[in-house]
Automatic annotation (TrEMBL):
Source species: Campylobacter cuniculorum
InterPro entries in alphabetical order: Cyt_oxidase_maturation_cbb3 (IPR004714)
Chain ranges passing through the membrane: 6-27
Keyword line: Membrane, Transmembrane, Transmembrane helix
Protein name, UniProt field: Cbb3-type cytochrome oxidase assembly protein CcoS
Length: 69
């Protein structure tokens, strides 16, 4: 029984170091950096104005629908 517990602890420590080394490798090689994703999400001013106008139209249509009822 004691040997099984010691084996489980040993395997757990080995797995922990494998996971830790994989995480550190990913950080070192910039696997978690998404700089490109954030730069492509920026819209120009005209697109943002169009989105605001569309949102306002949706609100007005919803208000008209509620007022008819």
């Amino acid at each position: 029984m004691n040997a099984v517990i010691m084996m489980m602890i040993g395997v757990s420590v080995i797995v922990f170091f494998i996971i830790l080394s994989t995480l550190l490798w990913g950080i070192k090689n910039k696997q978690f950096d998404d700089d490109y994703k954030f730069t492509t999400l920026n819209d120009d001013e005209e697109s943002l104005k169009d989105a605001i106008e569309l949102e306002n139209r949706k609100k007005q249509a919803l208000e008209k629908r509620q007022n008819k009822k």
